[in-house]
Amino acid sequence: MLEIVGVTAGHGGGGRDVTPVIEDVTIRVAAGEIVGLVGESGCGKTTLARVVTGLHRPSAGVVRVAGVDVHALRGRDLRAHRRQIQMVFQDPYLTLSPRQTVRQALAEPLRIHRVGDARSRSARVRELLDLVGLDPQVGERRPARLSGGQRQRVAIARALALEPRLLICDEPVTALDVSVQAKVLNLLCDLRDRLEFGCLFITHDLAVVSQLADRIAVMRCGRIVEQGPTRDITAHPVHPYTRALLAATPIMDTGISAADPRD
Amino acid sequence: MRSTGRLATAGGYVTRWAVDTAGVLLAMSLGTFALVLLARGDPAAVLAATRAGRPATPEQIEAVRVELGLGDPAPVRYLRWLAHACTGDFGLSLRTNTPVGPEVADRLGVTLALVAGSTAVALVVGVSVGVTGAVLQRGVLRGTLRTAALLATSVPAFWLSYLMVLILALRLRLVPTSGMAGLSTWVMPMAVLGLPAAGVLSRVVAVTLREALDRPYVRAAQARGSGPLSIVLRDGLPNAAGPILSVAGFGIGSLLVGAVVVEQIFGWPGLGAYFVHAAGARDVPALQAATLVMGGGFILANRCADVLQGLIDPRSRRGWDTRPRRAPSGGFTARLRRGAT
Amino acid sequence: MTGGPRDPAGRVWVRAVLVAMPLILFAIVGVLAPVLAPADPTANDLAAGLLPPSPEHVLGTDQLGRDQLSRLLYGAQISLAVTSAVLAVSLTAGAAIGAVAGYLGGWADRVVSRVIDVVVSLPGMLVALAVIGVRGPGVENLVLALSLWSWAPYARIARARVAGMRGSPHLDALRLLGAGRGRVIGRHLLPPALAPCLVYASTDVGTIVLGVATLSFLGLGVAPPHAEWGQMLIEGRPFLASAWWLAYPPGIAITAVVFASNLLGERLAAGEERPSVLRMVRPGRARSGQTPEPARAAVTAEPPAPIPPGSAHGSPEHQTVLLVRDLSVSYPDRGERRRVVAGMSYEVRPGQILALVGETGSGKTTAALAPFGLLDPDARVTGSAVLGTGPGARQLVGPAPGERRQINGRRVGVVFQDSAAVLNPLRTIGAHVDEAVRNAGRGGRRAATRRVSEELLRLAGLPDPAAVARASPHQLSGGMRQRAQIAMALAGEPELLVADEPTSALDVTVQAQLLAVLARLRDELAMSMVIVSHDLAVVARLADSVAVMYAGRIVESGPLAAVINNCDHPYTRGLLDAVPRPGTAPGTRFRTMPGQAGTGPDDAEGCGFAPRCPLATAACVHEPPALETLVRAAHRSACLHHPGRPAAAGGRGADSC
């Protein structure tokens, strides 16, 4: 579904990047697969997300979504192709317009791509609200009157409105309380099972992806240092950085809770 | 750590500031020169008529035109005008046929004295009223001060001077109605010019000081056991200084402009009155000189406030915050990074 | 939580209309002047010159016998016409130029920004005077002279707004959805950019009206015989002493319009910046408009509870560093007081770390800071909190400010959450720590104080304290700033360290180091701590005992191992279930709690968690359950059902934990 091959990108003008932020990154995401990308702040995770979604042009390498090079497209083709890739951001409050109600926000992508008429769009909006487990009456509210978890659900629903085949999630649960985070993660798993989209899940939290992702890629200073199935990474990390990250990640089941039957 | 030494950066900041200011002044001089292009009528004809004492002949006009170099292309004239202006030579007044420069220099002293006096009024009244407003929580006094300040900024200077003349000069006979002789004649002009500026300043002081005192670092200082006086002096006022300075700079600049009205009303022989005469008579060289000097003073006052603000608060220096943020350089990550490279 | 700003917004509008009354009158009178005016404003009648107000001439006549009231009304007309024209030109041109520059970015933006900078820094009235000086008076020249500089602020405001949004995720999201340029600018950029422009315009009306009047007063604006307010004043000047009616009405008219415009602008601007929702959500955060001085941080009107005698001389295991009993905190909310923390009791023992755990809005930060007078001044704290035992014991609820300063910074150190905000940006780290050292009474001469400061910074795990001391807060990383806060908190060699979310928003590796620093302080210096955290995994690494908070109350507390391994309260159970556990199969679903977090301790009559609780019965909704001791001493839970107690719930609780 998604192929990132040898991508290098950074800040600076034109093709010659002064400071590469990510270097030679290669990741593949299959349909229906969640791949976790883990790294600390400033390691280039977000730049990679922007490259994958086509918001940022790489200086080397290719990004293919469903076999099509994202950066080779222009104008109308690009906008049409964008239906395939959608993104969920860390702070939904910043990505939702404060002036639009939830209903309007969800109808926005449909209107942009001129999907259906007013009636079918409104039906689709109801369907989307239901899909992410929101009450229909939430549709009349504006983002300021939603809780953090509800906002993130709206953001996910909007990203899924055009039935993308690839979902990029950039720290989608970082700002949420654990109990809300658990619900949003469950929702993502359910939706992935139902809709079979591929998902690149970007986070700083190794614990979160280790329960969520099928595969994990660990990123440091713009490079992928280790990549593999989740169990291999968490149980037998090879790279010292992965080990350091694992050791630093607070994990409930270690240490004191020796009596826990799940250990 | 993201920067080396405060001084080096501050030096660079001042240099950048100076270049910037020079640019703004240059742009203003260009605009001032462009007034000629906007002017209706032919300056040469006016000057020739002034010299002749009656409507001039075409030959006389042509002679003046050659003398003033009006036939040259505009850029050449601009550069010549600018070069002369830098030496204090602004050409001849169209109405009196006398050099403008010395006249402007003479009158500048009067205006500067007026501005200095009213600046003192504005600072003393504005800051004290503002600090009182910031420290008071609620109550009648706070509301009264706030309304008074807003009212002071809303009253037109010319009407305020009418009121003062009516009450102080005509009814109570405390001060003369106009003129510039003796201390008593200074009271009304300085009050008329200084009080509105004080109103603006007090609002800004009240709001910014209040805001600074509501910041989390004030609570942190309480947690360290710091006393109220220390908090106002160390955490409150320095953090409020930026906006206060920039408004003060702007206010002093505005006083220069306000002087135009006040000098006119109270009959002071200052630059402002000269400006109004020149504008009424469409005396272009005089207008240009007055605009350049007063506008330059306004801009300098503003820019000085900016540079002071930048020196107090390193974050407000332009360009500082736009630098890309590096990753946290705390021990572990840094060590890993050093190990990698 | 999402408290509706709806009705306050309505009231704000009513007030705004009241404030704007003179402006509205100005507009109506300006439009209807020909209808309202009793006479021709330019008709001379020398026989009726300088008549005082009378039924025939309500505001008297001027030296040429013209009706003053009519002239006043027509003055509004001209003033309004010029103001509208200038506003229309500068608002349209300014907003368009600014928005386009902000959206395009790059060199176009740089050029436009420079031009705006220059124009804004020019003295507007001077420009107007100069332009009229060369062009001559008249309405068209007046509009030109005023528009020439008044567009720039609008351009600056619109540019800043649009440029700010250009790089925002909001626009990225729209681009990803495939939105075109026109849609983005028209529907998503211009409306939010126009709003602050309109707010500015409300002040600008006053500026322009004043400008027109001033220019006319100087004889450079509207030419006679047309009536204009400034013009009327200058014409009446020779007759000031005898004909007072010439001096007052025009001046009052100008002042009223300008005053209303200023007031309206100030109100609208304040309304825009007021973070009302934020305040509702986090009552513990700083509020604007309140003094933070400790002198006014009135705590409680009720007499503080006496120090419980039993706590004074106990055996070592009964010694407490902090003993809190029945602590409640309330804030004023629309005329009444609303509790955010209710009936909290907890204690901290020497050399132990107590963790207050809870989700957003559970009141954990409020509960931790309340004993030390660090809440907003309008917070009311009741109950008892005793620091230390024996002769040094101090009641913390309700002491005088001076006494407070003997405790804060000396016997208690505090580390706050947002290290970027709690450090004064203008002072170096060294100045902060020096102050803390001096407040603690350990300061000496400057160099000696600094030596102590550097020692403290080293103790907090900063390897190069001298360099850190010279740095400004914004030059340090979040982890380093947090260490600096720890150094300050340690200045008084306190018995108790209170840390509010000390590691949130930090990278895990940095977080691990900070937790290690805190653990070392406990192990090596036997320092007691209260740690506030939302992260159970972090707490599990550090704490000796835990108090779980929900909606302003403690629902379960006890030794760490007991709470984690044999939890009793269904909410604790739910929190533990929500923590990700590596080792589980990828895609394993979390067990989740239905519903949304409760907000306050008094919102529900019975157990606050009952609406979300799988075990809730009719009994649960009647009164809040008390904290009851479970099998092991010190492990207490506030649930009627006690699913964790083996006898009560069979096997369910014990093996599910």
Automatic annotation (TrEMBL), chain A:
SMART domains: AAA
Protein origin, superkingdom: Bacteria
SUPFAM superfamilies: P-loop containing nucleoside triphosphate hydrolases (SSF52540)
UniProt GO molecular function: ATP binding
Signal peptide as annotated in the record: none
Gene3D superfamilies from the UniProt entry: P-loop containing nucleotide triphosphate hydrolases
Limits of the ABC transporter domain: 2-246
Keywords noted in UniProt: ATP-binding, Nucleotide-binding, Transport
InterPro entries: AAA+_ATPase, ABC_transp_ATP-bind, ABC_transporter-like_ATP-bd, ABC_transporter-like_CS, Oligopep_ABC_C, P-loop_NTPase
One Pfam short name: oligo_HPY
The family this protein is said to belong to: Belongs to the ABC transporter superfamily.
Name of the protein: ATP-binding cassette domain-containing protein
Source species of the chain: Sphaerisporangium corydalis
TrEMBL record, chain B:
Chief localisation class: membrane
Domain of life: Bacteria
Family the entry assigns: Belongs to the binding-protein-dependent transport system permease family.
Annotated region (Disordered), positions in chain: 318-341
Gene3D superfamilies, alphabetized: MetI-like
A Pfam cross-reference name: BPD_transp_1
Organism: Sphaerisporangium corydalis
Stored InterPro entries: BPD_transp_1_N, MetI-like, MetI-like_sf
Membrane topology designation: Multi-pass membrane protein
Protein name stated in the entry: ABC transporter permease
Ranges that cross the membrane: 21-39, 112-136, 148-170, 190-209, 244-266, 286-308
The entry's keywords: Cell membrane, Membrane, Transmembrane, Transmembrane helix, Transport
Locations listed in the record: Cell membrane
Domain ABC transmembrane type-1: residue ranges: 108-305
TrEMBL record, chain C:
Location in the cell: Cell membrane; Membrane
Domain (ABC transporter): residue spans on this chain: 324-576
Domain ABC transmembrane type-1: 76-265
Domain of life (superkingdom): Bacteria
Keywords: ATP-binding, Cell membrane, Membrane, Nucleotide-binding, Transmembrane, Transmembrane helix, Transport
InterPro entries given in the database record: AAA+_ATPase, ABC_Ni/Peptide_Import, ABC_transporter-like_ATP-bd, ABC_transporter-like_CS, MetI-like, MetI-like_sf, Oligopep_ABC_C, P-loop_NTPase
Record protein name field: Dipeptide/oligopeptide/nickel ABC transporter permease/ATP-binding protein
Record keyword Cell membrane present: yes
Transmembrane annotation, as ranges: 12-37, 78-103, 115-136, 197-223, 243-264
SMART domains, alphabetized: AAA
Membrane topology summary: Multi-pass membrane protein; Peripheral membrane protein
Gene3D superfamilies with a match to the protein in the record: MetI-like, P-loop containing nucleotide triphosphate hydrolases
Region called Disordered, residue ranges: 283-303
UniProt keyword Transmembrane helix present: yes
Family that this chain belongs to: Belongs to the ABC transporter superfamily.
Major subcellular site: membrane
PROSITE patterns: ABC_TM1, ABC_TRANSPORTER_1, ABC_TRANSPORTER_2
